[in-house]
Design goal:
The structure holds 3 protein chains of 3 kinds. Chain A is built from 22 helices and no strands. By secondary structure, chain A is mainly α. In chain A, helix 4 packs antiparallel against helix 15 and helix 7 packs antiparallel against helix 8. The mean pLDDT of chain A is about 90. Chain C is built from 5 helices and no strands. In chain C, about 45% of the residues are buried. Classes of the chains: A mainly alpha, B alpha/beta, C mainly alpha. Chains A and C meet through helix 1, helix 2, helix 3, helix 4 and helix 14 of A and helix 1, helix 2, helix 3, helix 4 and helix 5 of C. Bound molecules: sodium ion (2 copies). The site of one sodium ion (NA) has 6 residues of chain A, from helix 17.
Chain lengths: ~425, ~325, ~170
Amino acid sequence: MSSIVLWDVALLITLMMIGVPVALTFVAAALFLIVMGDYGNTSFMITAGFAKTSSMVLLAIPLYILAGSIMTNGGIAKRLLDVADSLFGHYRGGLGVVTVVTTAVFGAISGMASSAVAAIGSIMIPRMVEKGYDRGYATSLVACSAVLALLIPPSATMILYGWVTSTSITAVFLAPVLPALLLISLFCFWNFVLTRKMPLVIEKKVSFKEAKENIFLKTRKAGFGLAMPVIILGFIYGGVTTPTEAAAVAVMYAVPVAFWVYKDMTWGSFYEAVWKAAQVTAVLMLVIFCATMLARVLTFEDVPQQILTTLLSITENKILLLLLVNLFLLMVGMFMEDVSGILLAAPLLMPVMNEIGVHPVHFAAIIGTNLGMGLITPPTAPILYFGTLVGGVKLPQVIKPTLVFVFLAYLPVVLLTTFIPELALWLPRLVTGL
Amino acid sequence: ASTLASTNFRLSHSAPPGSDRDIWAKEFAKQVKIQTEDRVTFRVYPANQLGDWEETYDQLSQGSIDAAVQSLSTKYDKRIGISWFPYSVSDYKSAEQAWNVGGFLFDVMNGLLQKQNLTLLAPYANGMGGMAVSSNVEQADNPNADHKNLKIRVWPSGAATHRPVLERLGYNTTTMPWAELYTGVQTGVIDGMIGGTPENAVRDWNGIVKTWVQLNDHFEVNWLVMNQYSMSRISENDRQTIQNIAKELATERFQQVAKSDESYRQELKDSGVTVITFNEQELASISDAVRKDVWPHIKDELGDDLYQLMVNHYNE
Amino acid sequence: MTTIKTSISFFIALWHLKLRLQQWVMFSTSIAFTLLVFIQVISRYIFDYSFFGIEEAASYLAIILYFIGAAYGTHAKGHISASIVDSLCHPGRFVNASHVITCLISTFLCIYLCTETWELVQFNLKMDVRSVELRIPIAWIYIGMLTGMILMAFYFFIEMIEAFCHLLKRHIS
Ligand code: NA
Ligand code: NA
């Protein structure tokens, strides 16, 4: 690897750490390579950003963010929580399971981990604390399970992966679903272990009939929200629409539900929900635009090829190479959030994957689980930090449970996903034929 | 500067490594290196590494990359549509006469590209165009048949010309981004696409195509183009050498293209795809229908001068 | 004195108007591209008819939104950042100084983006580049993006001045 590129990486990380917005650190890194290299015309960077971000495929991201935002402001999170609560609430540690399961279901509506933290965390953390859970633990559980939103379709991260590697989003959406289910079970398991010693208040058990009626009632209330993921997935995999179009359908579905079924939305809050979703989108898209600029310069500098030769010169053993790739992704995940990580790492590592015969859809699950984990591993752990803001705790209080979730839930799932291709490929193959 | 200093160029193309076009581009780079005695070298970037072809088209014109073997879109000039103007040429012989270096359409194209800071070195003959469909196509030879149940995707630049052609032939037309095309056909959002050659059907659509209709609607050419400023960086002699190599390779490719199409069609048949080809009479009835009913409506795409040039040429 | 006061309140009103305008642009473009894509679905699936150019229009609207929205994100201090300084260091002069520096760097980088984009506006005007389906001049799209970038540079500059005043105030007290 040329030393200029290493200096460039150092510059990138330094600027990130002192707090320059991530998008602009990419511009700086690109600019550095341009200045150090031999470039006549440099407008190709903006051209690249424009050509790629004006793609119809990418339009899925603003649309899913918008649909999620309208649903959240329409009060869907609360109703989903009620359903899960009526199912698991009266068991010991049940509220923890409620959190995990609700986040997973919410993830099928929202494409981003941060919206899951905001929507679920703000309701669930106070409720868990009230019932005797440790505040730090509750916050950690919410933050760690929020990552499920990016593993369960629709997912902004998977849309980006498909877009940046020219892999079909329809297939990519399904790749991390089984790993996500595995994570859900591991979270529930560790929830029971970790809450053993907490002074939990357990609600009195109600009669079976009463419980059944309650579940039925709550499910009916949440039904319109629960129907949304069914519509999205049904439209995509039933051959009605592309993933982008399904997102527009989801928005058009969410509006009447929020206004007239849940009656939680007014014109004022609708206006605000829409432009705020647009701001979230825009900030994300700026990262994407700028990462595209940097990625283009890196290809001009031949970096993907250099990474390939460097890795192959270390070993040609597929298992060792996959371990190295995981290590690389772990480091990327430590310093970057999922969006930047995927935009940089996916094109850089794609040649390696082609060389050792890893299917692009399998790699989607590998990179997704890895960078999802990166959202909660310090030093750069945006979802964990966001969680502490929502939960009102300090970082040291959440570290211990988070370490348990990272080492005993995420890491095993990452490794299983890497070394058992079927875990990622089985579902896409079943549904799309791949 | 050292007299041994060589000029290094970047050459982009969209075809995957090992494809016919990739081999052709690498052969061009190799010949240039040998015949200019290392004074000029081309580094070949395959498979859209420097951006997809719409983007590299901009980069070419702006001079960020020096050369490419690719198709061109209508964004700088509507008249570029002449390169896939439907049923302008419908057999290999007339395709070579029109498109090879010095041919009448080659000169037209070169003239158009001059204004975009580009020099046309040579055409790369991709093959005869057709349509890939995920179901059976009945009566494909009848220009008046009804295929309204088939939604065929038209590529964006081809919308102005090929949408009316397909609609004249009774098909339903639709749009879809390239990245979702494969699964879009697979899940059944749409039923097929126009704008490729038998090689595309094998490489890009393998597994989802049930029928390949060899419509011969256009002869697909890609263009070996170079940025004018990049050209000016090398000596007049070397420029001549490069142009000669390009012309020679283009001619060679024209001689192979029919056979190449045929072998890819055979490959399709072997994997169970129904390949529909037409005899001269059937083809004439389709192309007559398009020339009569569609050409007058799409002539604006070319402008009067070009349209007249074309009509006169083919009425001779 | 009163003229200074009125002109200040005039500028404040103008400032708020501009923010409101940005919100309105973000709202209406979002609604517009959602409707465009939705109409395409309905039309293709129910009426078996596809509009050509809808995808183009929707994605060009979106890209303008991205930059106008990113500028608003700058104003709202909502950019994605991975700052270690903010999350690990105690508030104080060091943190304040790093804010001044990051805003300065950000302003500079935004200005750089503006100049490159301005080149492309000129290029696209000169070559009369058009979108392939609707024949929209591409320069217009770049001008929309450029507007967002200029606003972004402006907001970072304002933030830098704020951070600098903050640093001085702390220094004095
Ligand atoms: Na999701
Ligand atoms: Na991290």
